[in-house]
Amino acid sequence: MSRRAWLVLVGIGLAIRIGFFLASSGDPSRRLYSPDSFDYARLAENLRAGHGFTADANPPFRPNVLRTPVYPGFLAVLLALGGRLESTGVAAGVLLSCAAIWLTRLTARRWLADARAGRVASALVAVDLGAAAYANFLLTESLFVVLIVLAFACLAPRTARSESRAKSYFLAGLFLGASILCRPIALGLPIALAIGRPLRSGAVLLAGAALLVVPWVLRNQSAAGIFNVSSVADVNLFYHRRRAVRDALESVEHEAPKEIPGSNDPVRVRRMRDEGWRVILDNPLSYVRLTLVAWLRTFGPDDRPAALLLGFTSVPAPWWSAPRQASLGAQRLSVAERILEGAFLVVLYLLAAGGWRGISDPVRKQLLLSAAAVVLYFLVVSGPEYYGRFRVPVVPFIALMAEAGRPARTSSEDPSAPRGTG
Questions:
Q1: H or E stretch including 259?
Q2: For residue 255, how many C-alpha atoms fall within 13 Å in the half-sphere facing its CB?
Q3: Which has fewest Cβ within 10 Å: 55, 115, 202, 365?
Q4: Residues 6+ apart with CB under 8 A from 336
């Protein structure tokens, strides 16, 4: 990809992100994605007020174990600096999403040791409509992506060599630990990335992640009797995965619950886990079918976030839902968004598939396998509740697979290579 084409695509990506931000500035409440944004805001406000990590609006301010501390802590810092989270918090998310574009290019350059590497991958991340839209909500996505891409950059073989290898792997572990405390869905990601690496390197990677995660697990055990980084997995198992299976068996359209009671009660959390697994294990085929449908939903066009940011309260129903009424403007937006994002996704997946042509090169092979490990991890831990939002952290790694298929620069193309004289 030429430098000019790369700059054009990155410029388009930045313009889309800024455009969504400006379009929603007239009504910042559009940037609150229920219920997650409200939980994060309340946790940040309580941290700022000195009440601790709690989502309670009034005393006794019970410790919260549903959410994890990195993103609310980040928002609390922004609150301390002044401004409203609907503005400053979302603006920070947009900046982080822009930073993810640059970090994707930096990661490719570190892995491939080529100053021109990363143009394809970063351009794909830039024009990802899903990332651009979700960056404009008060959500964890942008910060989470930055953390896991930073971790991946530290694992580059040309970065992690000889005496610096342990340091690089430990730093990668710290970034992964922070990502787990940003979104608990990443809990098993350090293990996924440690597999296939030298035993000592993998151990250092896991130690770095554990250094941040274990204290929070001990805090949850002490505060609420829940020995886990978060109760969100059990809550999702009960309220989303179990309910999705049950609703499918009863031929009822599944809807996410508006409230999640009992997420801080160890007895109720244990019951959620037991009942959730009971329903799933009793109906494994239904669960697998719903998960496969969720994969199609996740890796296909998602017009809802753009519609919400632009002020459409009702959008045309996606193919997996029952029909519903929507305004003419919403219908037109939906068609345009599905065409544009659908075309982008087709190009992304085709380029990623073509990237496996580079598997004969040892470094590119390691890049492909490591990026694939991240993608497969998010697929393995997925469930019927998945949708387009869960694709955002995966796209940079699909894009890096596409980058691996780019022809390597020859010495004659390298301006830094020594040249003969006269």
A1: none
A2: 6
A3: 115
A4: none
Phi, psi of 333 (to 5 degrees): -60, -45
Place of tokens 């809550």: 235
* 3 state DSSP class of 229: coil
DSSP codes, 215-227 = HHHHHHHHHHS--
Q: Say which residues have a Cβ less than 8 Å from residue 412's Cβ, sequence separation at least 6.
A: none
- Measured between alpha carbons, how far is 349 from 186 in angstroms, rounded to an integer? 23
Query: What is the distance between the alpha carbons of residues 38 and 375, in angstroms, rounded to a whole number?
Result: 29
Contacts of 299 (CB under 8 A, 6+ apart): 345, 349, 391
Whole-angstrom distance, CA of residue 110 vs CA of residue 150: 11
Q: Which two tokens stand for residue 403?
A: 């980058």
Q: Which tokens sit at 151?
A: 């971790």
pLDDT in tens, 342-369: 999 999 999 999 999 989 999 899 999 9
Checking if the pLDDT of 319 tops 60, the result is: no
pLDDT over 90 (residue 116): no
Q: Identify the residue whose tokens are 């910042």.
A: 28
Rounded to whole angstroms, the Cα distance separating 75 from 90 reads 10
Torsion of the alpha carbons at 402, 337, 33 and 35, rounded to the nearest 10: -90
| Spatial contact of 107 and 149, defined as CB atoms under 8 Å apart | yes
CB 138 within 8 A of CB 38: no
